[in-house]
Amino acid sequence: MSKLCGTLREAMERAGLENGQTISFHHHLRNGDFVLNMVLEEAAAMGLRDLTVCASSVFDCHRPLIGHIQRGVVTGLETSYLSSAVGRAVSQGVLDRPVVFRTHGSRPADILSGKTHIDVAFLAAPASDCEGNCSGKYGPSACGSLGYAFADAQKADTVVVITDCLQDYPLTDASIGEELVDLVVKVDAIGDPAGIVSGTTRMPRDPVALRIAELAAQAIDAAGLIKDGFSFQTGAGGASLAAAEHVRRRMLERKVRGSFALGGITGYMVDMLQAGCFQAIQDVQCFDLKAVQSLREDPRHREITAAQYASPASKSTAASHLDAVVLGAAQIDLDFNVNVHTDSDGCIIGGSGGHTDVAEEVGLTVVAAPLSRARMSIVVDKVLTVSTPGSSIDLLVTQYGIAANPGRPELRPALQKAGLPVKDIRELRELAESINGPAAPCQPPRERVAARVLGRRGEEQDLIYTV
Amino acid sequence: MSKLCGTLREAMERAGLENGQTISFHHHLRNGDFVLNMVLEEAAAMGLRDLTVCASSVFDCHRPLIGHIQRGVVTGLETSYLSSAVGRAVSQGVLDRPVVFRTHGSRPADILSGKTHIDVAFLAAPASDCEGNCSGKYGPSACGSLGYAFADAQKADTVVVITDCLQDYPLTDASIGEELVDLVVKVDAIGDPAGIVSGTTRMPRDPVALRIAELAAQAIDAAGLIKDGFSFQTGAGGASLAAAEHVRRRMLERKVRGSFALGGITGYMVDMLQAGCFQAIQDVQCFDLKAVQSLREDPRHREITAAQYASPASKSTAASHLDAVVLGAAQIDLDFNVNVHTDSDGCIIGGSGGHTDVAEEVGLTVVAAPLSRARMSIVVDKVLTVSTPGSSIDLLVTQYGIAANPGRPELRPALQKAGLPVKDIRELRELAESINGPAAPCQPPRERVAARVLGRRGEEQDLIYTV
Questions:
Q1: N or C: which end of chain A has fewer CB within 10 A?
Q2: In Å, how far is A198's CA from the nearest CA of chain B?
Q3: pLDDT tens across B430-451, in order?
């Protein structure tokens, strides 16, 4: 019997999808993804109920998920990132069962070990052949790396490939092989190419972000890392990208031959590869089309799985080889704990993604953030949610100065020697308060748990309450 | 702690190798492999005993294995192919426990399901970085595809990469990733490049082989398969290669645009790709250096795992998409059962490799063999060992004519219509006897089992007795 189904409905019926099962999705189409919505819409039409959605990330484009939760089609949600549209609804208590947050590394660890069981994985595939040999590199919805989809494909009971670009068998440059795929269905479009390039990957223009970026690059340099063999990751946030730009200038000026760039990859990292700053890119996720093109064409640009990226169960990972990372924060507290899950009101606005994984593994973790956002201090006494434990954070870089974690005593003198504005994190806390006024104490009533934040090894690290 | 070990001994000690454990090897270095021997020599020096060797194939270069068996270092052997040097010793009873023969497809099926447990996998890697990201495509011992090594890497408790070409981290074009690798050791040489190109892959010159090859190609054509979309596999034997040459001529003459070539890949298949006969190659094993080069350089030439090639546990395989295969036989009987395990004396000289897998999956299985070898008939009343059941064999092509399996009644009239010399297999049997004289009845005394031949799904298909 052919794997190819005429309609998504047929695929879901042949997959034997039942009430109460767990269905999974990857997020490589980012805010342009159509697949999660189309599957849930069909599930609702089929009268299915009590599904658990296990998605590597949930974006604002997945807003229809709220309605499916309200109608009982979906009653469970496990993810690594939940942007504010669905996040706010969850914080307001739309789900009875708490959301389960894992990191980008512990999600594949739990899937591969069998701790997380997936009944049906729906893989958005920008290109596939009729047997399910599929790739993210080709087709009108090309998203590049399929890094977060591998574990789902390996372990789900049933794997359904959903594509809008059916290619001749065999698709030789396939990332996921037919041996793992049960069913294939072609739809009109799996995503909106414009949404695949998220707005978060644009270079900032405001002087505060640029100042932070410059300081972050100077701090990495002061730590002695910008030398031959250097490896580097940035998040997709503006300050991170601007920091990469400063790192690039320093590398080129001194003809530093770095090793590799890691992570969610942007065109800026591709430029650095092409300029000789790095010899390789290890790419678990493409953030823009230049990264997609590079992954397709440049053999130095390697697609890696989420397990290869940062799973704590892997025998080693790309993250464990990394020298420095620049990450963001919604809040950071006096113990350097970072919150990337909730805003200052306690509403869910994100999740750790790979933040927690890489911060733990890397040589130097730099959190780059403005001291305030919308007149709210970033530096606080205690973060509302511990996303990444302070023990994994080495430096906080703000536009007013840099604080080093006392757990890394060698950093402060190194920064001072380089003439950088070193502050105690308490000074930054006080400065923030003097600018913004005393922080209104925010602590949602601890009545109902909206989400459980699991640490890298599955331990319950924090709880997020409904607001 | 670094994965990199200074010596093989250190790697084996750190791997915690113990008496009674199972160690695995792949055979991509074919008759040039040094790795199996060096590991066993070190195991003997360490005083280890009772090891089980789980090797995808064993070649004549592994003759030292006999001594390790005699001294009790190795007491178990599981493989898919055992060439005559070690095969003869096994047939003479050197091992107390019977050898376990699996097919190339059922070996990864049993490893991935956990039925076969590997304590330590030793992966010969022509190129690796310090974390074990490794490839068969580069380095002085390049062997191309690592198809048979993937399951071992995925499931062994401990994975040791042995390389003679250590590359900078990260090796971006890696086939097996660091997340699976525990230890890496660099040695002077993992193999003899000359031995990687086996003598079996040379085009034959004798007129009998060429006649058989021509008839095989004509038979495939008569079955209506040589048309656009055609997919094809040959074994590495001379007659198979010559058949490929005839298929190629027919494809080029009629401008047939085939789909893919599969299997152990030779330069002849690469030529056909380059000539436009095929759009892709799916390569589980390279038989010569031209295949290695093509795999490295041509994106249409895809490395596949043994599970992707032909595992009966896979959701689909390349083999299940295949139109025609030309395979060899040591014996074939009146029920079309094929023996590729033992010679006419009952001594072990091979094993099914992928023969049994592909024969079951493919559209048309052609066995091409001379009617006699060394004055012994190939066609016999009953094969000494059932390697591939007759239900999987469609045609026997000899220099004297072609016999079609009555289970495929449409084939005989198609061959006749094409003017081909169709015979009943009994006629061929009689002809062989009239040429060679009546076959000396050979049946080793059924006293001691030398090997168990498992079918594709793990069932005991036949037993091989000591001679």
A1: N
A2: 26
A3: 999 999 887 776 777 888 999 9
Q: Determine the residue type at A190.
A: I
A175 has a chain B CB within 8 A of its CB: no
Q: What percent of chain B has pLDDT over 70?
A: 98
Residue A199: the pLDDT is 47
Helices (H), B52-196: 64-70, 84-91, 106-113, 150-155, 193-196
Q: Does A113 touch chain B (CB under 8 A)?
A: no
pLDDT digits (tens, 9 = 90+) for B17-52: 999 999 999 999 999 999 999 999 999 999 999 999
CB pairs under 8 A between A and B: 102
- pLDDT bin (cut points 50, 70, 90) of residue A13 is very high
User: How far apart (Å, rounded) are the C-alpha atoms in residues A235 and A367?
Assistant: 10
To the nearest whole number, what is the mean pLDDT of chain B? 95
| Nearest-CA distance B467 → chain A (Å) | 40
- Separation in Å, CA of A422 to nearest CA in chain B: 33
**Adjacency order of strands within the sheet including B120-125:** B4-5, B183-186, B158-163, B120-125, B22-25, B51-55, B74-79, B99-101, B449-454, B460-465
Q: Give pLDDT, residue B197.
A: 64
pLDDT digits (tens, 9 = 90+) for A32-80: 999 999 999 999 999 999 999 999 999 999 999 999 999 999 999 999 9
Q: How far apart are CA A320 and CA A357, in angstroms?
A: 9
Res B93: pLDDT: 97
Q: Please list, in sequence order, all residues whose beta carbon lies within 8 angstroms of the beta carbon of residue B253, skipping any fewer than 6 positions away.
A: none
Considering only the beta carbons, identify the residue of B3, B174, B260 that sits closest to A316. B3
Where helices occur in B99-176 by DSSP H, the ranges are 106-113, 150-155
A187 touches A42 (CB < 8 A):
no
Q: Is the separation of the CB atoms in B189 and B164 below 8 Å?
A: yes
Residue A316, chain B, CB below 8 Å: the answer is yes
Write the pLDDT tens digit of every residue in A195-206.
876 545 567 788
Q: What is the ipTM of this complex?
A: 0.95
Average pLDDT score over residue span B362-385: 94
Selected residues 130-149 of chain B with any CB under 8 Å from a CB in chain A: 131-132
Question: So what's the pLDDT on residue B199?
Answer: 47
Mutate to test the interface with B, among A179, A230, A284, A309 (most CBs of B within 10 A): A179
Q: Are the C-beta atoms of B289 and B192 separated by less than 8 Å?
A: no
- At residue A368 the predicted structure's pLDDT band, cuts being 50, 70 and 90, is very high
Question: Which residues in chain A have their CB less than 8 angstroms from residue B159's CB?
Answer: 315
β-strands A324-327, A232-234: how paired? parallel
Task: Determine the distance in angstroms separating the CA of B258 from the nearest CA of chain A, rounded to an integer.
Answer: 11
| Chain A environment of B311 (Cβ under 8 Å) | 179
| Cβ atoms < 10 Å from Cβ of A268 | 23
Strands A127-129 and A301-303: unpaired
Q: Does B177 contact A at CB distance below 8 Å?
A: yes
Amino acid at B392: S
CB contact under 8 A, A170 and B260: yes
Cβ within 8 Å, pair A178-B317: yes
Interchain contact A302–B (C-beta under 8 A): yes
B136-149: burial string, b at 16+ Cβ within 10 Å, e else: bbbbebbbbbbbbb
Please tell me the predicted confidence (pLDDT) of residue B248.
95
Express as a percent the part of chain B with pLDDT over 90.
89
Is the confidence at residue B198, as pLDDT, over 60?
Answer: no
Query: Which amino acid, A439?
Result: A
The DSSP secondary structure of B246-295, one letter per residue, reads HHHHHHHHTT----EEEEEE-HHHHHHHHTTS-SEEEEEEE-SHHHHHHH
B307/A179 touch (CB, cutoff 8 Å), yes or no: yes
d(CA B291, CA B273): 11
Distance from C-alpha of A186 to C-alpha of A230, rounded to nearest angstrom: 43
